[in-house]
């Protein structure tokens, strides 16, 4: 399948928000286990207005995967090298959109001088990131009540693991 991977713009926010909300609610059941309180906390900041603000931030790199004029994936990288979002619409799973988004985001990170990416993966996405060369580095409890796995990946030769301060969730990205 072919996907157009392009920079996200504020006009993509509503569609990207729908991708985020559906992906979390429908694909991440292993993580939220149907717990309404966890789901509410996780989805709490996934509004079109908030997503638009993430896309507008000059410190973030935001990409969307588009197929047939519909946004089917969204990824967001912070200036600190954190892949804060990498989500797909449930209908786009296992069709190459995630791989394409991740590859393009890694290219963008390198172009910006980021030598190591890190992320907090759900149990649902753990296998995906491991299959793409990300290394496990412990478990972290997300502020919304889900256990996550810290992953990191060196993008450049001689790149090291992220420093211990960045391994923790912070409130800086709200993602």
TrEMBL record:
CDD domains: NAT_SF (cd04301). GO terms for molecular function: acyltransferase activity, transferring groups other than amino-acyl groups. Keywords: Acyltransferase, Transferase. The keyword Acyltransferase applies. It comes from the Bacteria. Residues 3-156 form the N-acetyltransferase domain. It holds the Pfam family Acetyltransf_10. PANTHER family: AMINOALKYLPHOSPHONATE N-ACETYLTRANSFERASE-RELATED-RELATED. This is GNAT family N-acetyltransferase. It comes from Pseudoduganella buxea. The lineage of its organism: Bacteria, Pseudomonadati, Pseudomonadota, Betaproteobacteria, Burkholderiales.
């Amino acid at each position: 399948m072919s996907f157009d991977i392009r920079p996200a713009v504020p006009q993509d926010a509503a569609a990207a928000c729908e991708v985020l909300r559906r992906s979390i609610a429908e694909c991440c059941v292993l993580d939220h286990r149907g717990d309404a309180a966890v789901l509410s906390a996780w989805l709490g900041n996934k509004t079109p207005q908030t997503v638009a603000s993430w896309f507008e931030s000059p410190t973030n790199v935001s990409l969307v995967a588009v197929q047939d004029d519909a946004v089917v994936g969204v990824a967001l990288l912070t200036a600190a090298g954190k892949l804060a979002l990498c989500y797909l619409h449930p209908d786009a799973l296992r069709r190459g959109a995630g791989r394409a988004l991740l590859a393009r985001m890694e290219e963008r990170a390198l172009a910006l001088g980021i030598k190591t990416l890190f992320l907090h993966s759900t149990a649902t996405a753990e296998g995906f990131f491991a299959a793409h060369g990300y290394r496990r580095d412990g478990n972290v409890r997300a502020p919304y009540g889900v256990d996550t796995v810290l992953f990191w990946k060196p993008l450049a030769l001689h790149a090291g693991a992220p420093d211990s301060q960045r391994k923790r969730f912070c409130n800086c990205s709200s993602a």
